């Protein structure tokens, strides 16, 4: 087995006690508390505050070492290049090592019951954790790029910001989103293990800051995922009503997609979703090509002008017909005159949507065969999103200008092209909504039902039945919430400002900096000793915090200093985004009392 120094992130020495080095080589799975009382991981209560950072970190190194050992011994795990991400196979760089020593499958047992957990052996516990890791890096690449709201909201963002500011902001968002993904990856690898698996974004916060931030993360993540599902239901309802030439009641169109979600939502594992996501990405590309062709050869959909970006530019004069003739398509090199900064910031929030996948990155890594492979999948997905989405957004803005609507495929005037684009977009959007619902229900179920109500895990038969029953409830709530708000783009801006921006740009630097400080604070003679069950620290409190910061390697020290500025900058942007989004929604409610609970489609004049 490799020595700990070779296993640490960034090549750093985890600085464990000499006994811990000997235990690492032996792969000893015994667990003990800081008080010296031996307690195995499965015998602890869920999210036990008595488990120290050193203990999480110790077992994370064991898990990473085991993954590396299996990867090195498997002939099928040789590097296959970037094409293996675009065209994945079942063994594209992942591993699923499952020990044969376990006599029972603990993943099918009700581990919410403390008495049941007491009967589970260490081997059965870690074996269950290994068995649940089935997703490959190819699957994760497509899961990240499935974000339907990204490409089709981007033309609206460019129309709100203009050519120059739009390209600049989208480029900055892309670079920072990739960096945030790296920060989450670093933190995850240092805290996740078979003994103490990280299941969600909230788990990372809990292990670095405590219970309060875990609850904050879970609440914000649940709100975002619920609204994402609702937004897709409403946008698909608009697309269906347009495809039906507004002959079908709009609220019925939305309800149809809510019912579709009842069935798509029954897929539980992300590996199975990987193939659906694969199809969704290519369907999105076909839809983009169709809508670009339609935008280049047909005029904009003037009947939907009231929903376009031009409605908030120059008081709507650019979309107001003169003598029955609509003004020509115009674009802006700089910020358009929106009568204030709220319209432009609201447009920027649409660009943030393109990189909103970070809030489920920990959930993706939690189900990966080899989480180390996540980084290449994530960077590949971010590069794909940047170049493909950028081209699409600029193309549509160039041809439709101020008449761009959100989502953009609804802005094509020719019915045949409009319908073709709508059909493809609706299918891929339904898959994306099912993915959001999948993660959202897991967060809610594990947080409320499993932890508070002691419900059985989703891997058990009873849990699977509970999942089937929760799907229609979740989709029904998402539908009702989204349908009650009259401004689609305003709602997306609110979600982007309050939730998406936080998970992509605010929280990752907060987590990574805390992780690096705690890791750097470990020095010789300190760490978790599984033999005695002690966590040895020579100091604590503020002194240890400053010492950890000062003891960082030069690379992580510079990154941590940047992270502090990054964190506060993201908070400022979130504040501006929240203010502008709320102003847009207030304006929408004043101008119209209509919601989606009506028969007339918002695109019908």
UniProtKB/TrEMBL annotation:
Domain annotation Amino acid transporter transmembrane: ranges: 140-512
Compartmental location: Membrane
InterPro entries named among the record's database cross-references: AA_transpt_TM
Family that this chain belongs to: Belongs to the amino acid/polyamine transporter 2 family.
Keywords from the named record: Membrane, Transmembrane, Transmembrane helix
Annotated source species: Paecilomyces lecythidis
Name by which UniProt lists this protein: Amino acid transporter transmembrane domain-containing protein
Membrane topology: Multi-pass membrane protein
Sequence intervals crossing the membrane: 139-159, 166-185, 212-234, 246-267, 273-296, 374-399, 419-445, 465-485, 491-517, 557-582
Main location: membrane
């Amino acid at each position: 087995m490799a020595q700990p120094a070779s296993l640490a992130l960034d090549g750093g020495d985890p600085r464990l006690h000499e006994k811990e080095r000997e235990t690492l080589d032996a792969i000893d799975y015994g667990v003990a508390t800081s008080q010296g009382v031996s307690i195995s991981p499965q015998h602890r209560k869920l999210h036990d505050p008595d488990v120290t950072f050193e203990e999480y970190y110790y077992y994370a190194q064991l898990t990473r070492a085991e993954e590396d050992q299996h990867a090195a011994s498997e002939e099928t795990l040789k590097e296959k290049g970037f094409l293996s991400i675009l065209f994945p196979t079942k063994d594209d760089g992942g591993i699923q090592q499952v020990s044969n020593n376990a006599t029972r499958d603990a993943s099918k047992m009700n581990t919410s019951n403390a008495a049941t957990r007491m009967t589970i052996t260490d081997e059965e516990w870690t074996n269950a954790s290994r068995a649940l890791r089935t997703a490959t890096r190819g699957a994760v690449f497509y899961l990240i790029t499935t974000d339907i709201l990204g490409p089709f909201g981007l033309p609206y963002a460019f129309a709100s910001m203009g050519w120059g500011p739009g390209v600049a902001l989208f480029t900055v968002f892309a670079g920072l989103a990739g960096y945030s993904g790296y920060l989450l990856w670093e933190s995850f690898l240092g805290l996740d293990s078979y003994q103490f698996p990280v299941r969600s974004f909230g788990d990372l916060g809990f292990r670095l800051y405590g219970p309060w931030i875990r609850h904050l993360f879970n609440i914000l993540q649940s709100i975002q995922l619920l609204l994402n599902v609702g937004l897709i239901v409403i946008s698909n309802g608009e697309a269906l009503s347009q495809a039906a030439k507004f002959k079908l009641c709009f609220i019925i169109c939305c309800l149809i997609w809510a019912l579709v979600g009842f069935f798509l939502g029954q897929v539980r594992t992300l590996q199975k979703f990987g193939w659906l996501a694969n199809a969704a990405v290519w369907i999105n590309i076909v839809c983009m090509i169709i809508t670009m062709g339609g935008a280049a050869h047909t005029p904009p959909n003037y009947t939907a002008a009231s929903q376009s970006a031009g409605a908030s530019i120059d008081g709507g004069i650019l979309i107001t017909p003169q003598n029955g003739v609509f003004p020509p398509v115009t674009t802006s090199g700089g910020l358009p005159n929106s009568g204030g900064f709220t319209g432009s910031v609201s447009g920027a929030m649409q660009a943030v949507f393109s990189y909103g996948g970070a809030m489920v990155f920990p959930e993706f890594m939690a189900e990966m065969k080899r989480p180390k492979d996540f980084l290449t999948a994530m960077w590949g997905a971010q590069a794909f999103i940047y170049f493909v989405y950028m081209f699409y957004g600029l193309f549509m803005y160039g041809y439709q200008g101020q008449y761009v609507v959100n989502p953009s495929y609804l802005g094509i005037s020719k019915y045949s092209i409009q319908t073709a684009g709508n059909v493809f977009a609706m299918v891929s959007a339904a898959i994306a909504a099912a993915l959001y619902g999948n993660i959202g229900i897991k967060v809610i179920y594990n947080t409320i039902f499993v932890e508070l109500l002691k419900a059985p895990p989703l891997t058990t038969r009873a849990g699977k039945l509970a999942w089937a029953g929760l799907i229609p409830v979740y989709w029904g709530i998402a539908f009702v919430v989204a349908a009650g708000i009259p401004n689609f783009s305003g709602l997306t801006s609110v979600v982007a400002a309050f939730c998406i921006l936080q998970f992509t740009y605010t929280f990752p630097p907060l987590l990574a900096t805390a992780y690096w400080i705690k890791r750097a604070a470990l020095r010789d003679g300190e760490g978790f000793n599984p033999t005695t069950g002690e966590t040895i620290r020579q100091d604590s409190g503020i002194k240890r915090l400053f010492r950890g910061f000062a003891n960082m390697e030069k690379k992580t020290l510079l990154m941590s200093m940047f992270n502090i500025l990054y964190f506060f900058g993201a908070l400022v942007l979130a504040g501006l985004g929240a203010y502008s989004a709320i102003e847009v929604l207030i304006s929408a409610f004043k101008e119209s009392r209509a919601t989606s609970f009506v028969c007339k489609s918002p695109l019908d004049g």
